[in-house]
Amino acid sequence: MRTGIYVDSDNISSSGGSYMRYETLRRFYEASSVVTIAKAYHAFDEVLAEEKPEYANWHAAHVARIQSAGFRLLIKPVKRYNNDTGTSRKGNVDVELTVDVLTQADKLDRVVLVTGDGDFVALVQALQAKGVRVEVIAFKNISSDLVQIADVFLNAYLIPEILAGDAQPRDRVIQIMNVDLNGQRAFYSCLEQAPATLSPDDPAWVRGELRLTKSMIDSRNFRPGKILAWRGRNADEEAFEVLATQRL
């Protein structure tokens, strides 16, 4: 299977993935396919870089991190416009990403869109009409329309070691799939490694069960679709942190 990975870098950076490990992302999909294209799209504000050295330093490190992971990078300068309300900025890379994907789609079996932006729904539909499988991954602030139209949606928090350093929510990340309130149980799934196949029954997926206390039930943090960081092995309420919510 030939896979192309396309990262809307600004969208991901502003929605939970500012510390995303691009190399981990690439290797995750290499486990089940041949990644023939890996490309990221990023807008750069030259004026802001001159005004704020911390932004310029972050940008340089961000570019180096993407390129060292084997991704090609398209950088689009942010443009500024004067109008009646002041100065506005424009640095959207949606058009560039869309054109690249549609141009290269005939050489791909699977397209992975790394974004939560609902503006890409039409692109997903166009790819599916060509017979290309479309998978979407993102962390949070994700368009429900994009989730529903994709062949597969995977919350990026579930990918092991996807975030760098202290940003990595470990020991593991789980997704609550079902809850038995009468029995005070929650059933979850999580990934222990990159799956070697596209099947949801791939052994990389691990399923388990949590015993819920009354306070855990009352907190509403243990409901279907909740993405939780689980630190340590104890299943008490303090061991869990809500990262995102995905509609199942």
Characterization of this structure:
This protein has a six-stranded parallel sheet with strand order 3-2-1-6-7-8, with helices on both faces. Strands 11-10-9-12-13 form a five-stranded antiparallel sheet, with no helix packed on it. It has eight helices and 13 strands. The protein has helices spanning 9-13, 22-30, 46-51, 53-68, 94-104, 121-129, 144-149, 214-219; strands at 2-8, 34-44, 72-77, 79-83, 86-90, 110-114, 133-138, 152-155, 172-180, 185-191, 205-211, 226-230, 240-245. 27% of the residues lie in helices and 33% in strands. A hairpin with a 2-residue loop joins strand 4 and strand 5. The chain has two domains: 2-158, 5'-nuclease (Rossmann fold, 3-Layer(aba) Sandwich); 169-245. It has 248 residues and is of the alpha/beta class. The model has no long low-confidence stretch (mean pLDDT 92).
Itemize the secondary structure elements and their pairings.
Elements: E1 2-8, H1 9-13, H2 22-30, E2 34-44, H3 46-51, H4 53-68, E3 72-77, E4 79-83, E5 86-90, H5 94-104, E6 110-114, H6 121-129, E7 133-138, H7 144-149, E8 152-155, E9 172-180, E10 185-191, E11 205-211, H8 214-219, E12 226-230, E13 240-245
Parallel strand pairs: 1-2, 1-6, 2-3, 6-7, 7-8
Antiparallel strand pairs: 4-5, 9-10, 9-12, 10-11, 12-13
